[in-house]
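Protein entry
_____________
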Amino acid sequence: MLVGLLLFPSRVAASGVGVIPGSLELETYPLAKATGSIVVTNTSDEAGSYEVYIEGEEAGWLSISPEEFVLEATGSQVVEITVSPPLTAVGEHEVEVCVISLVRASELRVGCGLKVPLRIIILPPSPVGMVAGFKTGSPLSWIAIAVVAAIVIPVAIRRRRKARDA
């Protein structure tokens, strides 16, 4: 067990479920996306059903894939967590990723689980952020291009017409 603690210092575990890493941090800009992942492991000697969901006010900004899955004994599954904050979101936010090992024979969906802290850092839009947004395909970047184009193109057309008429 000591070797496991040395090799995986940020692992958390509950009965039938283990998660690596024990905490997660994602950094992005408003309207951009950032994705992180956790690895869920079945620590029991029987197959089990698992469910992953988000707790916190910002849960609507996040998507999880897959949300539910079955793992064989000692099997593992990579779960991707994507944050897509709204335009008005800036600053640091904390939510919890809940991973539940469900009892397969129970109709009540009884289980045991754990919570992994997720820290979301949303940087304010800036010229540097806009450049980063172009790389990730942020809608905010494309909106900025459209606004600039809507201003620059008519001005250029007017200048060209004035030069031609003169």
Q: What stands out?
A: Helices lie at 2-7, 127-136, 139-165.
